[in-house]
Write a structure and sequence with these properties.
The complex is a heterodimer of chains A (293) and B (180). Chain A is of the alpha+beta class and 293 residues long. Chain A is 37% helix and 24% strand. The mean pLDDT of chain B is 84. Classes of the chains: A alpha+beta (293), B mainly alpha (180). The interface between A and B is large, with 52 and 55 residues.
């Protein structure tokens, strides 16, 4: 009997590890549909320790990239300056015309009310590491629970929507990017108001699945968050349509290029806001300092 | 059992490097160093200690990536078991067979990740050309790095185990008969 146990020692340990891994996967999946909750002390510790280590490891490469970036920026600054001046002048003129039209049509108050939806506090955070696995797209941020960050909070840049906080520890958090194959956002085409769901794709682009087949959509249309899913606030820029597929039998889809350059994601803002639906999902864990606007 | 913490530290350090490099380069163009440490452990160390290393590294990876908790632990442990079986059946002493084995395992490992994600309803199974391309790139990169990874793990294991482990104590082989 003892010999048998000794011979089967490795298969037994292997079986135990497989059973435990499957059980933790089921538990993790069941815990929260979006997989966003605190994963306990040890997991939090691993995340907290990772942040300073990755900062140290990234420091030399960051320095080289910084010097190179400044050199390249310097070369391009003059022409960019002229281009931007021209653009500002054009936009100011357009802005004046639009304001005038809005005042005349009496919609300015409604627009002002909509703007208050975005009046949630924004916390700047640094991206200290990307997902180590080639099969997932997430980033590690240097802000955690102690800074008011909680699961379910949107992550944005000055360009638009970047992702969603899914895990937090005391001083770090992980955010799933829009390009992750598990990510989905309720979107709307700004021009035609066509609704759908924007999903992440492996090639770094996004896929827009329209709710209604035959929706009015063109290449160049801007896609924004519709706010319908109750996860992201309405109006955040997601991307631009670059390809419209022929409508199939069931679905009509389009390829969207994200406005955020995920390859150069360094600094982001965590919106200290969480939709009421997310509060239900997370049982009130990590409630935002700003609360719901 | 000094080898377990030693190899886990090596694997976690590899994970940190992988995560840091991924901020500068697309993650698909970075070899899966943790996977290589596990394969190296299966070839160079084996036994219950190796299984433990694979599971612990898997859980560490689960915490730092977008995977389900237990996903990498499960798949890395299975990759470890597959490598052990291959090591017993095939001659993996030379770098070329090791590289081929790692290439095949990498493809299966990547597909398993997509499959497990689909099985748990996390994402639709996009088995398109992009996925195939990513799998091939990862397989080639991992295969190139595999022989070096095995050597590093082997050296570290030798250093940590020394002559303490009875199964690894050096054995003198005396020649039979008279030496001419």
């Amino acid at each position: 009997m003892r010999d048998l146990l000794e011979r089967l020692r490795i298969p037994i340990i292997l079986g135990l590890i497989v059973v435990v891994a499957l059980a933790t996967m089921v538990g993790d999946r069941r815990g929260a549909d979006a997989r966003g909750h605190d994963r306990g002390f040890i997991a939090g510790l691993v995340m907290d320790v990772t942040v300073p280590v990755q900062r140290v490891l990234a420091a030399p490469a960051e320095a080289v990239r910084g010097v190179w970036g400044r050199y390249v920026s310097l070369l391009a600054v003059r022409s960019e300056n002229e281009r931007l001046r021209e653009r500002v002048a054009r936009l100011e003129e357009e802005n004046l015309q639009i304001r005038e039209a809005l005042v005349q049509s009496g919609f300015l108050d409604q627009i002002a009310a909509m703007r208050s939806d975005f009046a949630s506090p924004m916390l700047p955070a640094q991206v200290v590491g990307q997902d180590a696995s080639a099969w997932f797209r997430s980033v590690l941020l240097d802000r955690g629970r102690t800074h008011g960050v909680g699961p379910g909070m949107p992550v944005v840049t000055d360009e638009g929507l970047a992702g969603l906080v899914t895990d937090t520890s005391a001083r770090a958090s992980r955010a799933m990017l829009l390009t992750d194959h598990q990510s989905s956002v309720d979107g709307i085409v700004q021009r035609s108001r066509a609704l759908g769901i924007v999903r992440g794709r492996r090639d770094g682009n996004l896929e827009f699945e329209f709710a209604v087949r035959g929706s009015d959509v063109r290449v160049g249309d801007v896609v924004i968050a519709s706010g319908l899913g109750g996860v992201y606030p309405k109006g955040l820029r997601i991307g631009e349509i670059v390809e419209v597929a022929e409508p199939g039998n069931i679905l009509q889809t389009a390829v969207v290029t994200p406005v955020v350059d995920f390859g150069r994601l360094e600094g982001v803002f965590v919106m200290l806001w969480r939709a009421p639906t997310m509060d239900l999902l997370y049982d009130g864990e990590g409630r935002a300092a700003g609360g719901t606007p | 059992m000094r080898v377990v913490p030693g190899l886990v530290v090596l694997g976690v350090f590899a994970l940190q490097i992988q995560g840091t490099v991924a901020t500068f380069a697309p993650s698909v163009f970075i070899p899966d160093l943790v996977f290589l440490v596990v394969v190296g452990t299966a070839i160079a160390v084996g036994g219950a200690a190796g299984l433990l290393v694979a599971a612990l590294l898997g859980y560490s990876m689960d915490v730092l990536t977008g995977a389900l908790l237990g996903q990498h632990a499960l798949l890395l442990t299975l990759a470890y078991a597959a490598t052990r079986i291959a090591n017993l059946r095939l001659n993996l002493l030379r770098p070329a067979p090791r590289a081929v084995l790692v290439a095949v395992l990498s493809m299966v490992y990547g597909l398993a990740h997509v499959g497990v994600g689909g099985l748990f309803g996390l994402a639709p199974l996009h088995a398109g050309l992009h996925l195939l391309g990513d799998l091939l790139i990862q397989a080639v990169l991992n295969a190139i790095c595999a022989p070096a990874a095995v050597v590093v793990v082997q050296k570290l294991a030798d250093l940590l185990l020394g002559d303490d482990e009875p199964t690894r104590r050096s054995l003198r082989v005396e020649p039979r008969g008279r030496v001419i």
